[in-house]
Amino acid sequence: MNIRFSHLLAAVLFLSLTAGNNRYDGQGDEEQKARIAKDYNIHSLPLPEDLTLGGESVPMDDPDVRERLDRELLVNTYWQSNTILLIKRAARYMPDMKKTFAEEGVPTDLTYVGLIESGFQNVVSPAGATGFWQFMESTGKEYGLEVQGEIDERYHVMKSTRAAAQYLKAAREKFGSWTLAVASYNMGMAGVERQLERQKASNYYDLLLNSETSRYVFRVLAVKEIIENPDEYGFHVRESDLYPILKTQAVTVDSAIADLAQFSLDLGINYKTLKYHNPWLRDSFLKNKDNRTYTFDIPVDKSFIQSEE
């Protein structure tokens, strides 16, 4: 029998056997409409009237600003699975990130830039931007990150966080505005400077920009608003649902490691766990020809490691 025909026949038989099993069969259109109205509701969102980013007020009296914010609030409120994941990951990473930003003199709410950049995942963009903070190789090196074959500190959560804070601080010094600094994180400082001069403007909200950058600051604002006020947007996440901060201890090494898998076992963990906590290690060894000192994060609680009997 032709394979495609046999698959079609099986599908027909399945539908015929299951027909009538739907518990809503037999309802008329009016009953169905009533059920939808009762059980499935999508609400328009009231917009907050007082919003700030980096301590700078958002001009909510501007109709364009209101509509752009409305769009991002709706997208992130009704993309429920993604936003719940953002809430959970933010609980793990943001406390330490906010400490680092504060140390660098950068407003702590700008840590939401990293959240919309990557969802706090070590992703790589089509253009090659890498890690939580999506640094290109050249920019990462400019802000002190080591990027070479076996080491890529764009994947180092806290080192890349400090680099991002330093970038934002430099952009703030250039433009005199944290909001423009955030826009430049997406567009680049040169791009923002060019548009300010071309349009004879002085702030982000007066600029006509490409689609991505025109949405960028509003995505940061929307995610900040939802995560800081989850109940108001229908997100009910218990404390026990949040991803906990993982406690680690530091192990320093200033020599080569021929086999990171064996190194992991010697520390009482496994290779996967070593790489999970230290994703900046990009190979199965560490040549370390210059005998640099590297610090590894090793979990304090190792009870989940399956020991070999």
UniProtKB/TrEMBL annotation:
Protein name (record): Lytic transglycosylase domain-containing protein
Residue ranges occupied by any Transglycosylase SLT domain in the UniProt entry: 106-205
Pfam families: SLT (PF01464)
SUPFAM superfamilies: Lysozyme-like (SSF53955)
Similarity remark: Belongs to the transglycosylase Slt family.
Top-level taxon of origin: Bacteria
Organism: Phaeocystidibacter marisrubri
InterPro entries in the cross-refs: Lysozyme-like_dom_sf, Transglycosylase_SLT_dom_1
